[in-house]
Amino acid sequence: MDRFLSNAVNRVDSKGRVSVPALFRTVLQRRGLGELYALQAIDMPAIDTGGTDLLERYEERLAQDDPFLRSSDDMSIFFHGDGAFLKPDGEGRISVTDFIREHTGITDEVAFVGRGHFFQMWKPETFRAYREEVRARLRAQREAQA
Q: CATH no. for residue 32?
């Protein structure tokens, strides 16, 4: 498996670290990722997290834009200025920094949510509510097509 699937909630320890779920660590190891790129999601209180391939996808998109356009500047601010690198320790834990806490509201637990080529970190209660909103939207779409 080379995709981030499923979700799990892990506790933040007394030193402010949280263990990345074992299934996610397996994906990171298979990809040879020792450092993670993290970005404050633009439309939800979550941290998008993946390898440098996530950053490279954004940079490839930026390279296609005219560098003199405001949208190019905006994108660079978004994924360079609002991004950070996270370094898991030898036991697969990452520090829950202010960068993460301020955007998500995470305190004592982190919900890790697989998103295919990357994963997100959420405050568990916020994720549960958002997941219900997503399901309601999908049900409404299905019913509208019936």
A: 3.40.1550.20
